[in-house]
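Please, structure for the following, as tokens.
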Amino acid sequence: MYHFTVASSVPMAGEADQVPILPYLPELIFGLIVFGLFFWVVKTKVVPNLEAAYQARAEAIEGGIAKAEEAQAQAQAALENYNAQLAEARSEANKIREEARSEGAQIVADLRSQAQAEASRITESAKRQIEAERQQAVVQLRQEVGTLSTTLASKIVGESLDSDVRQSGIVDRFLAELEAGNVRPEKVGAEPGQDA
């Protein structure tokens, strides 16, 4: 407890010997002892705990920074890996697309060549069939021409030319002369030696 005294402007007897700035000596010693005890408690108990807490906090912060840097490095590596895989996938897709185009062009070329071969085969078959039908028509026409010519010749000559050997010889000779261009059409009723 502090006591305040009001100082008067008149000095009292016996007070003149005391120095007004000097503290009371028992209070000063007691204050120094309490301060020393307080200082010792703070130094031995409080400061080490504060230092340990500061050290733990610093280590936690440094560990967090290291973990953050490690996580950032892993994220960067994952991003680079993803970009590499994406580029590889794009390259693979382009390669597959080009292969598909090439295979498509090859399939079209194969189908075109097959179609041309089939068309050639059909054309050749049609030509053979036409040639066979033409040969058949020529044979049939020869038979009809032979029959008609022998009938006509029989009527003109007045004798029968129905013999197959005779008929075949006459028809063959007539057609040979016709193909050679030795037979000329004549007008009915015209005299021999006169051209139409």
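The helical segments are 25-157, 164-180. Residues 3-11 have pLDDT under 50 and may be disordered.
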